[in-house]
Amino acid sequence: xxxxxxxxxxxxxxxxxxxxxxxxxxxxxxxxxxxxxxxxxxxxxxxxxxxxxxxxxxxxxxxxxxxxxxxxxxxxxxxxxxxxxxxxxxxxxxxxxxxxxxxxxxxxxxxxxxxxxxxxxxxxxxxxxxxxxxxxxxxxxxxxxxxxxxxxxxxxxxxxxxxxxxxxxxxxxxxxxxxxxxxxxxxxxxxxxxxxxxxxxxxxxxxxxxxxxxxxxxxxxxxxxxxxxxxxxxxxxxxxxxxxxxxxxxxxxxxxxxxxxxxx
Length: 264
Prior knowledge:
By secondary structure, the chain is an alpha/beta fold. 38% of the residues lie in helices and 26% in strands. The chain has helices at 3-15, 27-42, 60-70, 90-103, 170-180, 203-218, 237-254; strands spanning 18-24, 46-51, 75-79, 83-84, 107-111, 113-117, 120-127, 130-135, 140-141, 144-145, 149-153, 184-187, 192-194, 222-225, 230-233. It has a 7-stranded mixed sheet with strand order 2-1-3-11-5-12-9, with helices on both faces. The termini are far apart.
């Protein structure tokens, strides 16, 4: 590496700042979590929290969107109150994110666990399911990240769906948001401990159905009429081709419908 590029890389790392954001239901757990971040190099960073100890709860989608909007750091870490840094710290996270900046400048989301494809996970975590789990080749591109630890590039300008609520599937949701924005999500080699094995409470199935309905509707094939063009959007090549074939006669007919006033 040249001296100039090495100096540029160093300056980039020195400028990277972090915000650590958490929904808090147990202040004692949160205090231990925050101290672990301080001990591992994040002492000068911004810490944001939402107090969820009362009867009125802010859901993950709304609460984390609020903190993403409030965050001042270049990188926003959205994490559970029961994660603990004990192995990797700020230097390692800087290095892993720098790798992503180099290999895929369009990345938006990173985590320590997630789903790659049907039946395939990427994991770099210690939790009740096992110590020092190391599965996958990192950085590993994923379709969803686990919610215990989500890293978001603030300049990606993405967030969580405003038409979903609750405490499940928001890791998948923000990865879908990233994909729609033309960006990507990864699991990286950043080892920490998560004290919980996860909780499929009674709302889990309901939230899964809501997630599927929302994204099924959002990604469904459709005609799109702009002020100067008409086109058919579909993820299936044959449907896109068929849409192209019928575009001209359909566009011609649509110009002469009663609702076509003002469109030329």
